[in-house]
Fold each of these.
Amino acid sequence: MDNEADDQTHPVINVEEFIGKTVGRRKPAAPFTSKGWDREAMIRLREGFGGVRIPRGVFRFRTHEEADRWMIQTTAKAAARG
């Protein structure tokens, strides 16, 4: 019975143990490349399709349903414009 109480009071992992070796290697993230596109070309492409149609910014909603309703209405207005 003494053994059972002892198992519950000691942690399973020794948090003070020193980890001597790490296996593997972490690779740094690759830099972002736009595959030949520069900023001016991206702006011209966006303007060619009518610019940004969805308002930018942070929008807060009480529920997911309210957010979905707003998104559908905004997308419909943008589609109607052009």
Note: The mean pLDDT is 77.
Amino acid sequence: MPDFFKRALARKKGGSRAHVIIVEPDEKLVYLVKFSIGMTVCLTGLEIAYMAFMHTWNSEVFAAIAGLIGTVTGIFVGRQTK
């Protein structure tokens, strides 16, 4: 698995080290995580541009950023359980 997101979302099953089975994540989940991280980067850039030009804080964009970060964190934490 050369993709970082696939490795991060993969599950390990098995009792001993010799018999560990790695279960790859669904492609839709990988695309969702990539899209969410990309949108977080874009919205962060939008917030920086808004602050640079308007000299004020946009709470709606920040709420969207916080929601996406919560979603991505929830996906990663939820995938780590057995």
Note: Residues 2 and 8 are 11 Å apart (CA to CA).
